[in-house]
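Structure (tokenized):
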């Protein structure tokens, strides 16, 4: 299984075979995670530091669990309350980290490009857990694994990504990954949230859910990122739900076996009907969470192998 990368900063630099290598390895971890003893020792003796400059419950828990199940020593640094508040720069942080000799660094940061900058300054493997509006590679990979398991393939599917595309690093990473794997992608949402430049990614753009969902295999809803919005992107949540929220009526336009996805956290009754989100026949939202741990284990194992190779 060849994976020749030192870091995982985005999907952009991955080839289709890199993507497949991560997903194939993740499949083995799905099986491990369903056993009563969920432990491997591929990261034994290695140190993983999680640095989250932005709050995240699920992604951080998922990375922590992934590292522990692989036998790493895992440390969480609460960056909101840290020396960053005292004016320490990202470069100072990198120098401090280097002195601790970590092997894997998982970073989430509110500014696009910050994780990349950190990766240039540290001596360990860096995983981007989301940077600004830029990328969130492990989310796109776990989405890809979820789709592949549900549909039996990851190519030539019609996939609709709906809602707040403008502010979404999840949408950007998914666009890149699903495009590399030869899928047809539609972006559906109000023009304020789906800027026309996204057509540059090779996606078709719709501002009407009824047209956008017609005959699709996968419906991926996005969270309204109110914390990144200033001003009038949507008239009201009620109006937004009426036009762009996923309910049974809108979903009925997709293929009969279409799956429903959401990266979470969900605003029920705004982006998606609560009952639909919990419908085990249509929704794979819980599977996405499960696949997240397996994909992060796979990504960390592949990077750790390369890191060890450099130091052996």
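Design, position by position:
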């Amino acid at each position: 299984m060849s994976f020749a990368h030192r870091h995982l900063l985005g999907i952009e630099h991955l080839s289709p075979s890199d993507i497949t290598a991560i997903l194939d390895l993740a499949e083995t971890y799905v099986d491990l995670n369903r056993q009563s003893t969920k432990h491997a020792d591929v990261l034994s003796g290695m140190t993983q530091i999680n640095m989250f400059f932005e709050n995240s419950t699920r992604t951080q828990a998922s990375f922590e669990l992934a590292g522990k199940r692989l036998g790493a020593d895992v440390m969480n640094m609460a960056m909101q309350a840290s020396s960053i508040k005292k004016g320490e720069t990202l470069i100072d942080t990198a120098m401090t980290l280097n002195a601790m000799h970590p092997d894997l660094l998982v970073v989430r940061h509110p500014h696009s490009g910050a994780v990349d900058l950190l990766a240039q300054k540290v001596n360990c493997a860096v995983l981007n857990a989301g940077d600004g509006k830029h990328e969130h590679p492990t989310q796109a990979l776990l989405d890809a694994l979820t789709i592949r398991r549900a549909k039996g393939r990851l190519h030539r599917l019609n996939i609709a990504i709906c809602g707040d595309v403008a502010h979404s690093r999840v949408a950007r990473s998914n666009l890149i990954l699903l495009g590399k794997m030869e899928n047809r992608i539609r972006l559906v949402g109000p023009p304020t949230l789906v800027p026309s430049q996204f057509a540059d990614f090779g996606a078709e753009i719709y501002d009407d859910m009824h047209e956008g969902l017609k005959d699709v295999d996968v419906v991926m809803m996005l969270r309204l990122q109110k914390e990144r919005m200033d001003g009038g992107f949507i008239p009201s949540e009620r109006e937004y739900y009426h036009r762009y929220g996923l309910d049974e009526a809108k979903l009925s336009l997709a293929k009969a076996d279409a799956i429903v996805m959401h990266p979470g956290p969900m605003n029920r009754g705004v982006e998606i009907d609560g009952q639909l989100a919990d419908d085990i026949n249509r929704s794979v939202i819980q599977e996405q969470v499960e696949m997240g741990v397996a994909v992060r284990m796979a990504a960390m194992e592949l990077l750790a192998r390369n890191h060890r190779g450099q130091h052996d």
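Reviewer-requested clarification: The chain has a mean pLDDT of 93. Residues 259 and 281 are 8 Å apart (CA to CA).
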